[in-house]
Amino acid sequence: MLIRLTIALLRRLLSVIGLLWAIVTLSFILIHLAPGDPIQSLVGENGGASPEFIARMRAEYGLDQPIFVQYWHYLAKLCVGDLGYSIRFQTPVWDLFAERLPATLLLLASSIVVFSLLGTVAGVYSAVNEGSFGDIALRIFVVLAFSLPVFWLAQLLIYALAVKASVFPVMGMRSLFIRGGEWTKAVDVAWHLVLPATALGAWHMAVTQRFVRTSLLQVLREDYIRTARAKGLASQQVLYRHALRNALLPVVTITGISFGTMLTGATLTEMVFNWPGLGRLILDAVLGRDRPLLIGLLLISSVLTIVVDALTGIVQNMLDPRTRVGGTG
Question: 258, 204 in Cβ contact below 8 A?
Fold first, then answer.
């Protein structure tokens, strides 16, 4: 058993390394083939520069080398954990990542946790009350949430709840001149978080509601549920003690799969709401043709997705012994 587990872990590790190498290689090639020059973009913002200065800057960042030489140097640095130096911000990529990551994690975690719970509650309600007015209304909401692009929903929320109703702030993460203690500042951040988290989490809530409803309806038709009812157990006991645990297993899988999609959606959401996270940083990297920063952010985003996928697998194993290595509990 131990040998099989070790072999499975080694295979998993090798597949992750191969996947990351493929991501880095493809990102490096595609970004270098894209039009635009990072040095020209940088000096253009400062009113231009002499050809000698541009040539010296290109030599300093190694951009005057052939692409395979640049690729080899990048891989060599990457092997020791060096993601390079941002041309646009004149700062190590790691420092920029550490500075912006908390804002993105706050947005993602809020969206996933809150809207997973809401989607689960809505899915349970729809399954228990199949065919009711509430179930039909929730199914219509699911269709709408699937159809609305994140950036369009974000702009709609800003117009309706921030501009017209003045209930929430239009954009940003904090008020400019807020005074008070840490609690006041935390409430202010939470207030700014409502609209971007809603825009990002609506799709995830719809997916969760759909899967919970379908899964719970299937579980409620299983023989062991009929047996539990035949024994005289109350409907609430059958639902929460026997049916819900098995029905919630797909939610773990969907949440893990949705992370990558939501990470992409977070980029658009942060742009619309001027949220100071990784999404804004990716936009700045693209506009500035900042190749080291863009490749580093793509690599880090991939690592985050792989880590979440691994955590999803662990939680699945805890909930369902049939998914463990060996196939049995």
Answer: yes
The string of DSSP letters for 179-233 reads: -S-HHHHHHHHHHHHHHHHHHHHHHHHHHHHHHHHHHHHHHHTSHHHHHHHHTT-
Show the DSSP H helices in the chain as ranges. Answer: 2-33, 38-45, 51-60, 67-79, 93-128, 133-147, 150-157, 182-220, 223-230, 235-237, 244-247, 249-273, 278-287, 291-319
CA distance 146 to 203: 6
> Could you give the CA distance from residue 254 to residue 204 in angstroms, rounded to a whole number?
9
Reported as a single tens digit per residue, the pLDDT across 140-179 is 888 888 788 888 888 899 999 989 888 888 888 888 777 7
Q: For the chain, give the longest Cα–Cα distance.
A: 87
For residue 34, the SS3 value is: coil
Neighbours of 161 (CB within 10 A): 17
3-state secondary structure of 46: coil
d(CA 161, CA 126): 28
Q: How far apart are CA 105 and CA 21, in angstroms?
A: 25
DSSP letter string, 257-297: HHHHHHHHHHHHHHHHHT--SHHHHHHHHHHTT-HHHHHHH
The tokens for 14 are 């090798």
Q: State the first-to-last Cα distance of the chain, in angstroms, to the nearest integer.
A: 12
Beta bridge partners of 85: 92
Tell me the whole-structure pTM to 2 decimals: 0.79
Residues 6+ apart with CB under 8 A from 155: 272
Distances (CA, A) of 70 to 29, 62, 73, 141, 178: 10, 7, 5, 50, 47
